[in-house]
């Protein structure tokens, strides 16, 4: 059932009432998988009150210390934001986002991230996202209440699940999709090699890793392709080792 693979992740929520209201919004739309990353105050009676008949979702919610933990097994991540950022992430409308999530959910867990009430999602959190979704709103007052934003996206997902047959998009892939955790290890490896070859200056990394993450997110690697990339990086490192030895001899 694809809907059960769609994970709603509230990142660092501060108001427990919003957590309860988000759970209710989800259950109304047949979504059940709620993850809370470092909630400021939880569990809480306020969350229970606002959840009304969705207390079961709160009871089953997964609490994580870090976003990495919440996204470990996800191969597709969407972020929601009211703000335009300096370096733009590829954007989707809520309905397009819903269709992509349903497609992705056929292959494994996927996540939709919501930011903290005050700050929204930080750029480092958006770095984990394949796409960013904005709900169209008044240009001078575009920031919705957190639970209201959850409601709108949950409704789009529910609607799409009713009318959209779920075209399987993985035809071009030879291997299984890459999980969030594996992608993070790849980026760590890539960064290490870029530093070793002198392409990335650790003292002045600029936005290079963010731009590269955007590139690889757009490409949507499968597991075989990831192994090729890791193999290339490892052979660069081995050859660098040999070069060092040759210059020392
Ligand atoms: N000041 C923050 C707003 C945070 S509102 C900012 O400018 O980003 C809390 C969360 O609700 C946001 O992080 C986002 O997940 C969601 N949200 C609020 N308004 C939204 C909108 N117009 N489109 C998409 N998500 C929105």
Broad CATH class of the largest domain: Alpha Beta
How many domains comprise the coordinates?
A: 2
Biggest sheet: strands side by side, in what order?
Answer: 3-2-1-6-4-7-5
Choose one word for the global shape.
Answer: elongated
Total number of strands:
7
Output the CATH homologous superfamily of the largest domain: SPOUT methyltransferase, trefoil knot domain
Percent strand equals 5-15%
Rg, nearest Å: 20 Å
Give the N-to-C terminal Cα separation: 61 Å
Helix content: 40-55%
Helix-strand pattern = EHEHHEHEEHEHEHHHH
Walkthrough of the structure:
Helices cover 48% and strands 12% of the residues. With 249 residues, it is α/β, with parallel strands linked by helices. The chain has two domains: 2-170, SPOUT methyltransferase, trefoil knot domain (Alpha/beta knot, 3-Layer(aba) Sandwich), CATH 3.40.1280; 173-248, Helicase, Ruva Protein, domain 3 (Orthogonal Bundle). The chain has a seven-stranded parallel sheet with strand order 3-2-1-6-4-7-5. It is elongated, with a radius of gyration of 20 Å. The mean pLDDT is 92. Residues 80-83, 114-115, 117, 120-121, 133-135, 137, 142-144, 146, 149 line the site of S-adenosyl-L-homocysteine. The site of S-adenosyl-L-homocysteine (SAH) has 18 residues, from helix 7.
What secondary-structure arrangement, pairings included, does this model have?
Blueprint: E1 6-11, H1 16-28, E2 33-37, H2 45-51, H3 55-60, E3 62-64, H4 67-71, E4 76-80, E5 91-92, H5 94-105, E6 110-114, H6 123-126, E7 131-133, H7 146-163, H8 180-196, H9 208-219, H10 223-248
Parallel strand pairs: 1-2, 1-6, 2-3, 4-6, 4-7, 5-7
Helix pairs in contact: 1-2, 1-7, 5-7, 8-10
Bound molecules: S-adenosyl-L-homocysteine (SAH).
């Amino acid at each position: 059932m694809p809907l059960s693979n769609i994970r709603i992740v509230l990142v660092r929520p501060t108001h427990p009432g919003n957590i309860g209201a988000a759970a209710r919004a989800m259950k109304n739309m047949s979504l059940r998988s709620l993850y809370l990353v470092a909630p400021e105050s939880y569990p809480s009676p306020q969350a229970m009150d606002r959840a009304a008949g969705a207390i079961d979702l709160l009871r089953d919610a997964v609490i994580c210390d870090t976003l990495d933990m919440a996204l470990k097994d996800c191969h597709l991540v969407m972020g929601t934001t009211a703000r335009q950022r300096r370096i733009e992430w590829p954007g989707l409308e809520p309905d397009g986002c819903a269709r992509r999530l349903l497609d992705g959910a056929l292959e494994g867990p996927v996540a939709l991230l919501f930011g903290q009430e005050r700050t929204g999602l930080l750029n480092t959190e958006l770095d984990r996202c394949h796409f960013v979704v904005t709900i169209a709103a008044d240009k001078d007052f575009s920031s919705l209440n957190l639970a209201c934003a959850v409601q709108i996206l949950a409704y789009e997902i529910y609607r799409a699940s009713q009318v959209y047959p779920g075209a399987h998009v993985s035809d071009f892939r030879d291997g299984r999709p890459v999980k969030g955790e594996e992608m993070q290890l790849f980026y760590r490896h890539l960064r290490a090699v870029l530093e070793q070859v002198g392409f990335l200056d650790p003292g002045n990394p600029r936005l290079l890793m963010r731009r590269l993450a955007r590139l690889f997110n757009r490409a949507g690697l499968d597991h075989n392709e990831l192994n090729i990339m890791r193999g290339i990086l490892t052979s660069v490192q081995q050859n660098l080792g040999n070069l060092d030895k040759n210059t020392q001899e």
